[in-house]
Amino acid sequence: MARGDLTDEERPLIEPHLPLGERGPIPNLRQQFNAVMWRSRTGSPWRDLRAEYGPWSTVYDGFRS
Question: Does this model's pTM top 0.90?
Answer without folding.
Answer: no
